[in-house]
Design brief:
By secondary structure, this protein is an alpha+beta fold. Helices cover about 55% and strands about 15% of the residues. The chain folds into 3 domains: about 150 residues, no CATH class; about 100 residues, Helix Hairpins (Orthogonal Bundle), CATH 1.10.287.130; about 150 residues, Histidine kinase-like ATPase, C-terminal domain (Heat Shock Protein 90). A hairpin with a 3-residue loop joins strand 11 and strand 12.
Amino acid sequence: MKRFRFITAICLTAITIMVVGNIWYLYSLYNSIKEQTLQTVSECVRKADILEIISRLNSAHQGEDDSSIMLPLVVQGEKSPAGGYEYPNILENLGQTMSECVHVIEQSDKRIPERDGALLNKLFKKELANYNLNPELAVIQAIGENSGHSPGLWSIDFALAKNQSPIYKVYFSPLNGHILRQMSGIIVTSAMILILMGFLIWYLLHWVGRLRTIEQMKDDFTHNMTHELKTPVAVAYSAADSMLRYYDQSDEARNKQFLKIIMQRLSFLSGMIENILSMSMERFKTMKLNIENVEVKPIVEEVAGLIELKAEKSIKIDIDIPANLSVMADSLHFGNILSNLIDNAVKYSEDTVNIKIKADTNSIIVSDNGIGIDKDNLPFIFDKFYRVTSGDRYEVGGYGLGLFYVKQIVDLLGWSINVTSKPEVGTVFTIKFKSNEKR
């Protein structure tokens, strides 16, 4: 168990580290996509700025035959280690060149009207829509103008080139939705993996807990069986030893008494072994019941009479069953069911036992005035090897198979059983017969 705990702790630590690492990766990916999105917004500003200036140029030169605009093409290169020149980000450089040129033309041509802010913003929103960016608010303002916008908005400074001072301040609604949509695939798969891992960990720990419970039940069963076997073996051993040590051929009555004791104890042991074998789940799966029309009252009276004879305390059993009541059942197993329920009522009671057995065409009810069962143990009393260990009745003989046997046979008959109990008041077992076999 220590090794299991150690390995489990290592695995959980590793999983925690992986989850934290995955969260960090998602955070880094979010920032990367956000940076790309801001660059896209910046390019949309550049395009809208160029188109707005061109619109004013066209307005200033209306009526002229030549509507073309001549722009010098300038591409800035970088010297490579090999001695030549490289031209990285050539499209970005061309965009910067065009932007700078149209601004030079705007400043040199006095006929061009002043900047149209409404058109600029309209063109800006149109360019954003081309990239599936649709913020609720998107505004371009010249540097120095009072924004008057909410501090929750995102903003960027736009300059014609990297090393120049910005000419516009751009405000727009946060684009978290767009960024998260870009990350949706990895977010969904990561969440599914995390949920699956959490479920598997819970399932593993759940079954480990159940296995530990079963192991404890097995230990209790071994302890109880040892206790149960020691008593008849000790009695039979003592009787046989007395016959060997003090054998008197002339005392036939004494010899028969010892032999009777030995036979009784051996018969008891044989019954215990048969009960244990009958608890095998495989045997229950293949068990063939001898279903017949069984009269209920005679069987109840017979079982109650046997338990009253062997009991070592005061017992009163009230039987309220119609004389003609019968059910379709296996008489042997039906009697064993009643024997287990009545025997438990006697075992788990004080010195005076009052048991009531009532039956009709729908059900049979066995109630007692015993010590009862608390609500924490009640859901498990039909489990194999389970015994209630609380209170002062742990020393009561048994090995946790009686009620398990009862539940299995009731299920095989197609019936149902339920129990209600209150500590220090008593317990009520109710067996409901299958509706199509009422008599």
